[in-house]
Amino acid sequence: MIPPRILAILPGFVASTIMDVVKPLMRLDAQGAVRFDATLEFYPSSKAIKKADLVIFCRNTDPRFRHHLDSVYSISTPFIYDLDDNFFEVPLDTVSGEYHRNPSQLECLEQYIRQAALVRVYSKELQDRLATLDVNSSLMSPPLNWELISTRKPAPESKPIKIVYATSRKEDPLSALFIEALTLVQKTNPEDVEIHFWGQYPNNFVQSSNVKFHPFLKNYDKFLLTFSEQEYDIGLAPLIDDPFHRSKTNNKYREYGACEIAGIYSNVPVYADFVKNLDTGILVENTVEDWYSALMQLINDPDLRRRIGLAARQDVLKRYPPGHFENDWANQIKHVLGQSGKEPTLQHKTEIHTGTIQTAQQRPADKPGSVIKSLAKKSLADWKFSFHTQLFNLVMMFKINFRKKL
To answer: Which residue from 122, 231, 253, 398 has the least number of CB within 10 angstroms?
Structure first.
């Protein structure tokens, strides 16, 4: 039997679209379960859309490309929409918030999710928000690529204790939650610790010989592989308790746990629902005292660090075993194709994923900012970054469709 043809139409190749869509579908393609192609939303041909048995959108909200949605809908091709961020609640005091909460963007987003056969989300907070829009949503268990996790070697007793914080955001207010406590650690234990920042160096943190900076890696696979090889001891995971951040996944718990890193996590549902305090991590309130106390506790107690790291790895392995994510995709593709009246020929030995379906009445969105205003804030560096991003997107698209290694 011929496996179904799946087409992903994506706004770009970022960590979310690669981890949540491209990687698992490429694995299913390699297994012969589907025939998968991915393209950028400014690039697909009507011929490619007509050939697809099922289309996948992920984070698409740009009204300029809404005609792809219209094309898919007009020929009754079922589609799945994958959403890992709560665009309805992005803070308006950020460029991202002004963009995503523009009325035209939100209107376009609502059209996608209302017409989708299934919307995949990764947090109960976001699923509850979509319930107000009469949307079929499935709460997913997020991915983790264990093939990229290096085996941790026994650490020498004399080495400095390596503390790490990583972010992919150009605007990152979260580091402010721990930066004062980390500054105190730096002042009192400069020879005992080595502090690593990935992606952004906090403006108000003093540079020193024991502070290392690692530039943002656009290729998430390369980042995770390199990150795991560093064998960090303590990981910082700050988070704000608001609707937008509660819609995030426990990404840092998965990464830290897989790498056997003892993590310190803000005591918010995203982490508190998974982390067992003093067993698989340390939960703290967002105060200087709590962050400092947890840091010093882990710095002074190597046995506790090791015990937490090992327990976290076992917990993460149990919650996110290898292959679970593509299995969910395979089941949902089969289910959606079956519901659409198209006989699924997907050959993949798993059980149908049972996500929670919710419906309710529409709620008006909050008043957004202006896209024009946000674009006007772009500096020359921002425009260069945008150009490099689009070039990266094109290269990634050709790599995927020619089946080269990502």
So the answer is: 398
What gap in Å lies between CA 42 and CA 208, rounded to an integer? 45
Which segments of 22-117 are extended strands (E)? 35-40, 54-58, 79-82
Domain boundary, last residue among 319, 354, 385 = 319
Same domain, 134 and 164: no
CA within 13 Å, CB half, 294: 28
CATH number of the domain to which 29 belongs: 3.40.50
C-alpha 17/C-alpha 85 separation (Å) is 12
pLDDT tens per residue, range 273-325: 999 999 999 999 999 999 999 999 999 999 999 999 999 999 999 999 999 99
Q: What is the mean pLDDT of residues 332-348?
A: 79
Closest CA to 137 of 121, 124, 152, 123: 121
What is the phi/psi pair of residue 287, to 5°? Answer: -125, 155
Write down the pTM of the prediction.
Answer: 0.84
Rounded Cα–Cα distance for residues 23 and 10 (Å): 13
